[in-house]
Amino acid sequence: MTSGLDERSTAFREVVDGVARTLADARHMNGASFLSLPVMYPSGSLVTVRIEPHSEGRYFVSDMGMGFEEADLMAAGRQFVHSAPGIAVKAGVHLDRQSFTLGVRREQLVGAVSVIAACSQEAVQLAVFKLDEKKRADAADRLCERLYRLFTPAKVEREATIVGASNTAWSVTALVRADGHKAVYEPVSEHPNSVASVLTKFVDLNQLEHPPARIAVVRKKELLGTRLALISTAGNVVEESVSDKALERLALEDVV
């Protein structure tokens, strides 16, 4: 009985060891080694860290500026440049020409690789988030300017607060009051957080006894993928290119 348990335990450890080995892929070339780690950028690409031998038994660990390149490919390079220095200071690593770097002894290599990978990933995630915030702010400006023109500024309240059925006070980009109707307008980007935030807000407002019309304004519907059907369950979804007449009509329709 004991022998059988030992065999199963050994087999289990071998399986786990095999998983551990496949989590990171190592390549060696030109006097350096490159580790592809089970840490992902927002694009789905794996974070890769380079290790080079340095003088006196020390090693040089770097993300090779791959984080910046990832952010730049998503048009978030400027946001990366602004955010990365703070991340480097917080983690105690260097930022050299948009590369996170660290010089360490052999016994510190595991920790250094983990820290550099985490910094690179965090910087890209933050850059993409900041870019999405900017896009949403710009979209909100464009949307409100149109609503002011369609309904007059007196009927449009920007950054209004409206209480949902759960008694949660929601901040909405624009609340239109016209001809006895209320309508909430929200710009929505393709970022999952943007969709989730507006969806939660719309669902709660929809539960009111007299709910306002809810209009989500997106850049392109196809960019939302499957999330388009999700947010459509809680409100109307229109593209920024929709006509003024259609944008106005949605606010004046009776909500069922």
List the uncertain runs: none
Number of strands: 11
Could you describe the largest sheet, including whether it forms a barrel? 6 strands, antiparallel
Instruction: Figure out the total of helices.
Output: 7
Helix and strand element order: HEEEEHHEEHEEEHEHEH
Helix content: 40-55%
Question: How many domains comprise the coordinates?
Answer: 2
From the alpha carbons, calculate the radius of gyration and give it in angstroms: 26 Å
- Terminal CA distance reads 69 Å
Overall pLDDT: 91
Read across the widest sheet, the strand sequence of neighbours is 1-2-3-4-6-5
Descriptive keywords:
single chain; 256 residues; alpha+beta; Trna Endonuclease, Chain: A, domain 1; 2 domains; six-stranded antiparallel beta sheet; five-stranded mixed beta sheet; 7 helices; 11 strands
What does the model show?
- With 256 residues, the protein is an alpha+beta fold.
- The protein has helices spanning 2-23, 66-73, 77-91, 109-151, 192-206, 227-232, 244-252, and strands at residues 25-29, 32-40, 46-53, 58-62, 94-96, 99-105, 156-163, 169-178, 181-188, 213-218, 236-239.
- Strands 1-2-3-4-6-5 form a 6-stranded antiparallel β-sheet. Strands 7-8-9-10-11 form a 5-stranded mixed β-sheet, sandwiched between helices.
- A hairpin with a 2-residue loop joins strand 8 (169-178) and strand 9.
- Helix 3 (77-91) packs across helix 4 (109-151).
- The radius of gyration is 26 Å and the shape is elongated.
- The mean pLDDT is 91.
